[in-house]
């Protein structure tokens, strides 16, 4: 059940927090399935009240009810729209009916989006239509910085508004309240979890949630995010109030540093993929984010470019720096948006024909724009990195998972090509993997296992040999999982997985099955005899034994995650068998 609560942040400053214990949408950032919270901030005023960062249509009824308790419908109300998408525009339409003295403040890109989305196209409205539609309320465009003094005269709040555009959120607008030193950061520094706590109880309480949120949304545009964080360092901050999750007051500096650290691998990468897209209702942008997340997992740099809000020079530079170009478009009235057609023309004129390409997009009925992009690129001799991705309406969880795996496959392909080029340049000489230290490290033995995991309709599996018992009480194990493994997304705190321990002499068939190259989205257990553990995890009947494990901790270790889990259940399937062991010649590879 969705509801909205009121929390006091400071004198004359309230947080109206929408709470949903259920997953709101299928976008990848909700993948931990810990619900969500949507924060808006209200400042009462004598002449005019102020609302910062309204939520989306999903919270419309409880939000308008709670807002009505704090702000009568006949009172003037200024709304700072920090993020513009169809879901939020749906709520604003209803607010325009309820509050006739409403006015909106948005960035220049935000104003453009509000004007485009205010009147839904026939058959494409993502939210219920308003019974009595009102014209777009008065709009104030925020260019550069804008200062406001709001609230009651005896306790005014000084607001500093400034645009913070990114490819995913071109209409981004952040707010800094100078009196209390609070940064209303919108989409930055958030975490999707349902909690009534106003603030984080301690510094690292929700670090995993914030890292997951970063990997899903920020990593595919790490450079642009770094630019925003660098600008925020100039502000006098006491607390960060994001659009999702609790307020951060004790550890906001650490979170800023984490944002830089988490994007560091991409900044160092010599390989780059450009994601060029436009998105009418957010569906194509969601596909782009999933592709970008999969690419970034392997450490390849992602350059996200929203073609509606990017310059021709920015596009040309991205094309010349990239080893692969992915172009995504919606279909509007049987056509691709004009900015996408312009971007396609630049690609055809500027890109080397050896550059890998890919096409993706969402559509309502026929998808002509996607077909056009594919045909033009094929006719010009480009090589496609993957079959064209066509998604009707909104992508579901399985589709987004497949998009992520496609992105990971692409980044791994680029890395293999790079290694081959390096070997040719070195005359085929062996690299450091033959050094004595690596040979010695390879003598560390591990049990051969198959890790399996399932969460709802999503499932995954991988061969694992970096496995060790880690504790007696409670019984626990550790397993190392490479960051670019598809199953990694199913291994977060609180989730379960199964460890299927293979039998010596009988391991070959299962190894052959799980070491094959699966197509993105392919069913990993096809043709195998599988039963379920008590928590619904896949168990392989041909294994020697199995353990069901609950994830308790994750630690980042270079290019792997070290997963520590508590053993909840287990059984021997063959009391006479021996454990298969992985013998390696070098510690530089599996």
Characterize the structure shown:
The protein is of the alpha/beta class. The chain has three domains: 3-262, Metallo-beta-lactamase, Chain A (4-Layer Sandwich); 269-419, Rossmann fold (3-Layer(aba) Sandwich); 440-582, Pnp Oxidase, Chain A, CATH 2.30.110. Helices cover 28% and strands 28% of the residues. It is built from 14 helices and 29 strands. The strands form six sheets. Strands 1-2-3-4-5-6-7 form a seven-stranded mixed beta sheet. It has a seven-stranded antiparallel beta sheet with strand order 21-20-24-27-28-23-22. Strand 20 (449-455) and strand 21 form a beta hairpin. The protein is globular and about 80 Å long. The two termini are 47 Å apart. Residues 122-131 have low confidence and may be disordered.
Summarize, please.
This protein has 14 helices and 29 strands. It starts with a strand and ends in an 8-residue tail after the last strand. 47% of the residues are buried.
CATH T-level topology of the largest domain? Metallo-beta-lactamase, Chain A
Arithmetic mean of pLDDT: 92
CATH architecture of the largest domain: 4-Layer Sandwich
Strand runs, count: 29
Helix content: 25-40%
Principal-axis shape = globular
Distance between the termini: 47 Å
Structural class: alpha/beta
If strands are numbered along the chain, what order do they take across the biggest sheet? 1-2-3-4-5-6-7
Q: What value does the Rg take, in angstroms? A: 26 Å
Number of helices: 14
- The proportion of residues in beta strands is 25-35%
CATH class of the largest domain: Alpha Beta
In this structure, how is the largest beta sheet organized?
A: 7 strands, mixed
| Total individual domains | 3
CATH superfamily of the largest domain: Ribonuclease Z/Hydroxyacylglutathione hydrolase-like
Q: List low-pLDDT spans.
A: 122-131
